[in-house]
Amino acid sequence: MSRRGYRRSSSGIFGKIFWVVVLLSLGLYWGYTRYFVFDPQRILDESVLKEKSFETNVVEIVSPKKGIKAYLFEDNTNPIVSISFMFKDAGLASDPDGEVGIANMAAALLSDGAGDLNAQQFKEELEKRAVGLSFSAGMDDFGGSLLTTSDNQKEAYALLKSALTAPRFDAEDVARVKKQLLIALKQQKEHPAGVLALDFAKEIYAGHPYSRNPVGIRNDIVNITPEKLKTFVKNHLTRNNLIVGIAGAVSEERAGVIVDEIFGELPANGRITFVREAKIDFDGREKNIPGKFPQAVSSFVNPGLPRNDKDFYPLYIANHIFGGSGLSSRLSLSAREDEGLTYNIYTYLSLMTRASLLKGGFSSTPENFARVQEIIRSEWNKMGQNGVTRKELDEAKNYLISSYNLRFASIADIADILVYMQKDNLGLDFLKKRNEYVKAVRLEDVNRVSKKFFNEKNLIFVNIGNLGEN
Amino acid sequence: MKIRFWAYFLGLVFCVGSAEAKLFGAEDFYLDNGMQVIVVSNHKAPIIRQMVWYKAGSTDEPLGKGGVAHLLEHLMFRGTKKVKDSEFNRIVTENGAESNAFTSLDYTAYYEVMDISKLELAMLLEADRMRNLDISRESFEKERDIVFQERKQVVENNPASYFSETFRRYLWQEHPYSRPVTGMPEEIQNLTLDDVYDFYRRYYAPNNAILVLSGDIDVETAKELSVKYFGGLKPTKNITKTSFPVLDKFSKTYFEMKLPRINAVRMTQSCLAPSYNTDKSRIYALAVFSRYLGEGETSKLYKKLVVERKSALSVSASYDFASRSYGSFTVSALPKENIDADEFQKELKQAIAEAVAEITLDEIENTKQKMLAGQVYLLDNPNDAAYIAGSLAGIGMSLEDIENQADYIRSVNYKDVIAAAKDLFENSSCVLGVLKPAEGGENV
Predict the structure, then answer these.
(1) What is the pTM of this model?
(2) Within-domain flag for B334
(3) B214 and B335 share one domain
C-alpha cells in the first residue's frame, strides 16, 4: 500500500508519459530493426526451411569375376545410370613421340563404330536409346562417360564394352577425324586467348610434354594409322590404370556385374610412356607476344600444391579469397568492382598430375592493362606479407561448407566426383568428411602457406596484345 | 505460425495450374500482384535454384540505348536501399550460394543456387532488388566500364563473334533482334544512370516477372514463401508491350566477310521461321525437321555432306522457336579445306533439297523416337529444369504447353514436316553468310 502510494506520488503524470515514451520508442526501434534493417542471420534463423541431413553414401564394390574395384553412389530417385571412367596417365602427355595427338584422335574415334556396327550404325543405336557416350583425352588422363536410362542399360553397357574392346577405326572415319583435327589446329589461333593458351604452355613447360598443343602435332596426326590407334587402345585402356565411378539406380550387387560386363575383357595391363615431373623456373619473368587486338590477354602463374598435400586446403582457401571466388575475390573487388578495368579476373589451382600451379588470368583494353598488372602485383605482395583476415577466412569457410551440396545436382556430376576421389586417393569417406577438412583449417595455416606461395618475385606473366612500350 | 495460417488463407485465391506430371511435373500459380511462380519439385539433394525472369531484354531498349538492359543486369548486383553497394554478392557467397544473371533479346534472368536452408534469404534479396535498386553515380560509371570491357572480351576479341553479329543484322534488318545484346561500344559509353532507371522502372515489376523455384521444395511451402517475400511488391500498371515490325518482304541475302585471323571458312544459313508466339501450330513440325535435318551425327545433312560426299567436316541445324517475335532456323557448316565456297554452297543447297524430298513416315517416326527417348533425363538436374521452364515461360509459353511438349512432338505427322520444311525454304527470308580468311593467308 505504501509502496504503491510512494510510486504514484513520486512519478505522477510525467512518470507515466516517460514510460509510455520509452516503451513506444523500444517498440518503434524493434519494428525498425525488424522490418527496415537487413539482418541476414535473422532471416535464416526464422526460416521455415532448415538444413537437412543428406546421405552421401559411397561404397566400394569389387566385381565378382575380375575383381575390378569401383565406387558406387546409389540413388534411385530416377531410372537413370551414369558411369564415369578414367584410364590414368593415358592422356596427351604420354602420347609417344611421333604420335602426339593419338589419345585425342582415339577419343574422337571410339564412338565411331565397334564390333559389327559401323560408325553410322553405332551412333544410330546410341541415339535411338538416348544413350550418351563420350570419350575425351586430357593432358594427363583418358576419360569417358556413359549416361543411360534404366530401360536401355543392357544395350548401353554392351555398346560401351564394344567401343572399348572392339573399336573399328575404319579408314574413312580415321581420315575424317584427321581433317577435323587439322582444321581445329587452325581454328585455335583465330583469337588472342587461343594463341596465348598455346604460347603460355610452351613458355612455362618448355621441353616437357605439358607444353604440347592439346589437339596434337600436325605431322604426327597426318601419319597416325588405324593400326597405331589399335595399339594405343591395347596399351593404354587397361584394367591396370582403370578407375570407375557409378551413380544412379544401381544396387551394389548389380554394380559389380555391370563392371565385369563392361570392363572385364580389357587387357590386364599395357605399356604407357612415363611422364616426368614438370620443372618450372619461377623467375618472375614477363613475356609479351605482340599483336593488335581490341583487348590484351594475360596469364600468370606461381607454384601451387598437389591435391593430396597436407597444405592443400589452406592454399585452396587462400586462393578462394584471393582470386577464386568470382566477384567477391580480392582481385575482382579491386580490379573490377573498384576500378572497372576488366570484366573478368581470376586465379585457380591447376592440379595436373605432374605440375601443381597457382594460375590466373585477365583481359583488358591495352590502356588499362598496366594498371591491372600493377594491382595484381600489389595484391600478390599484400597476400604474401599479411595473409588473410579472420573475417575473410570465416566467410570463405562458410561458402565452401554451405555450397558443398550443390555438386550433387546431377547423377553425371556425382559419377565424375567418384572418379576424382579415387584418382586423388581422397578416401571412401571423403564426401562425409570434406566439410570437416575445411573447418579444420586455421588462420595461421592459411597465412603460412600464403607467405610461401604468394611470392611476387616468382610470378611469371605471359601476355598477348598491343602493349606498346611494355 | 501466424504467417503460415495467413499464407494458407491467401492460398485459396491462387490460380493453381495443371498438376499432370509431364516434362517436369511442375506446377504454377499467380500471386495477387500478377507474378507467376513455377515450382519444380526435385528432392534428390537438399538444394534449390531460384530464378527470377523478367520479360524484358535488349529488344525492349529504346533506339540508341543499346546495352541498357544488360548494364541494368550488372547494376542489380550494386546495391539497394537496404542492401548497400556489393553486400548482395558478399551475403550470397558467404551463404554458399552461387549467383549470376544473364540478358538475352527477350528476357533477363537472375539466379541463385544454394542449400535449401538458405532459400528464404535469396528470396528476400531478389524481392528487394526488384523494387528498391539504389545505384550511386560512381558504381554506375564503374559498371559501365566493366560492360564495355565485357563487350571487348566476348565479342570484339573474337572475329567469329563479329561475323555472327553482322549476320544477325542481315537477317533481322529493321527488327530489334538485329541489335546486339551488349549494345555497340559507343552506345554503352553514352548510357546514363537515368537510362538505366528508366528501363528498370518500366519493366522490373512482379507482374512482368516469373519466379522459378526448382529443387527440394514442395508446392505448399513455395506458395507460402513466395507470398511472404514477393506478395507485398506493388505491380506496375500498363507495362508497355514492345511491338515488333512485321517482316513480310520476302528476301534472299548473300554476304561474304573476310576477316584477319580467321583460318577456316564457315558457312551459315538462317531463315526466319515461326515461333511459339507467331505460329504455334507449326513449331513442333519444324523442331522434328531440325533434328531430322541436322541435329547430331546421324542426321541427313551429316550423312550426306560429312560421311558420303566428304565436302564438310561438320554440319548442324538448329531451330529456335522460343522467342517473343519470329523464330529462326539455322544450318551451319564447316566446309573441308580448299573447297571453293561457291561449290560448297551448291552442295549444301542440294543436300537440303534432297533431305526434304526424302522425308518419309519411317524417317520421321525414327526421329521422333530419338527426341523422346531421353525425356526422363530432364528429371535429374534441378538447374536444367529451372532454366528450361523459365526460358520457355519467359517468352510466354504456358506451363501446360511446356509440360506437354512430348505429346506435341508425338503428334507431329510426317506430312506436317514436309509442309513446314517447304514453307521454310520457299516462303521466308533467308540469309547465307560466308566467313573467310582475309587475303594474304592464314595466321599459323
Answers:
(1) 0.92
(2) yes
(3) no
